[in-house]
């Protein structure tokens, strides 16, 4: 059984020498906003499978979410941390984790033209989800789940996955009206 404190679910404690990755989907933190969420996976080196070890979703302000991410990612062997940077909440998290906590495991994007690490202000910290790559992420996630590349332990993630439907007019896949996708998107950022 997972250790459950508030909305934090821990399924497995860190293993010495194991590699971990965390995807985070931040929200504004207000009472009417979506939940902020993160999911941490352990990479199983022999199979390449990603095994969920910890997940979280709840309404939380950016500074508190940054602190939680800092602590939990350090706990999981300085997990590589990919934060969706689509809005103010993502930018706020990245600024706090980069400048205040100096977390060394933040994901950054390589220059798509040179495929080298950019320097200075050209570094693009975090993950940008747009209309095009969102559909690729979702379709890849479906494939990885079916091929058991993703091992999901959280009933909350599985419940969100069950709400995803294809729009017959646009062909786009998304959570159905009135449902949330924060844990699913955090999962896909991790993968």
Into which percentage range does the β-strand content fall? Answer: 15-25%
- Based on secondary structure, the structural category is alpha+beta
Q: Over all CA atoms, what is the radius of gyration?
A: 16 Å
Number of strands: 11
What order do the helices and strands follow?
EEEEEHEHEEHEHEEH
What is the first-to-last residue Cα distance? 24 Å
Strand count, sense and closure of the main sheet?
7 strands, mixed
Q: If helices are DSSP runs of H or I spanning 4 or more residues, what is the number of helices?
A: 5
Mean pLDDT across residues? 85
Poorly predicted segments: 1-5
Helix content: 25-40%
What general outline do the C-alpha atoms trace?
globular
Structural commentary:
- The protein is an alpha+beta fold.
- The protein is 31% helix and 25% strand.
- The protein has 5 helices and 11 strands; from the N terminus they run βββββαβαββαβαββα.
- It has helices at residues 62-75, 88-100, 131-146, 155-162, 182-190; strands at 3-5, 8-10, 20-25, 36-44, 49-58, 80-83, 108-109, 124-125, 150-151, 164-166, 173-175.
- The strands form 3 sheets. Strands 1, 2, 3, 4, 5, 6 and 9 form a 7-stranded mixed beta sheet that branches.
- Strand 10 (164-166) and strand 11 form a beta hairpin.
- Helix 1 (62-75) crosses helix 2 and helix 4 (155-162) crosses helix 5 (182-190).
- The longest helix has 16 residues, at 131-146.
